[in-house]
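Running this now, will post back.
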Amino acid sequence: NQSPERQEDDAAAEDKGDVPEDTAQSILVMLSEFLDSEVSDLRTETAEGLAKLMYTGRISSAKMLSRLVLLWYNPITEDDTHLRHCLGVFFQLYARESRAHQEVVEESFLPTIRTLLEAPATSPLAEVDVNNVVELLVELTRPSALIKPSTNIEETSVHDFLAVRMCGEMLKDPTAPEVRLYAKALSNLEFSRDDAVKEDLQSLLQQLVQVVKDRICLRALEKMLQQLTDSKEQTELLSASPPQPLDVNADEAAADDLSKSVKRAKRGQRKASTAKGGRKPSRKAESSEESDGENVPETVSVVRPPRRAKTAALEKTKLDLNPLINQEANVS
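Update: finished.
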């Protein structure tokens, strides 16, 4: 049991600790109101200060990040080059710094898009291109964009959770115009190799395919579902059949068998050519070949006559000298 004096000191310390927290909260509320100020300098200085606080980790707020994104795209800040440049650099550095920062961006995705889609026609935000905002947030949350990407390929990525959010939003109203927007964004996400995540996404996509009527959205969802199915089957195939070690002796034996079969094939070709070339070609064919020897194309293969045919031809071309010898003997 603590003494009454000790309890009073603890209570006073708690009260003192609550004061800075409440003060900080009230300051943030005041700064967020300055973002809507019509004074350009006040708006710019406030946005730059909040960006620095978020980048250094002093503030972690998806709502505040959404306010900065909307301010950056708001047409009223089009002429404020310093503000546009400051926020443009901040978004890139902030998202690439760590996965925790990308999770803040992912958490701000749907609130930002809803604000733009629900903006009244009289609001400057109604002129903002929502597709451009979606592309920016998708790129900021891309796992490969991190300065130090994770080496664990099985780890779930921020895009996995973003895809689940998009699918859930589409299931709320499959006929809404933004369904086409989310379907297009889904095809640009980088998914991890986590099997549980793939199964959840496949289940959500199968539900969407049954309720979505827009042809363009349906085609994109079916293509994505097929890609997830193929990647899952390929992963299962690779895990079921690990690569076999290379057998050098087996490769050498196969090479020897191949060389032997080639030699046998060449011997067979020689025997076939000998059998076909045994017949003596006619003189007419020889004369035509001699006269048109220059016009014969190189691709025509001439069958060489066998050695026996050559010997027989030489024997016939020899002169028969026996009658001349007998004639000279009779004269003498």
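The chain has a mean pLDDT of 78. More later if anyone needs it.
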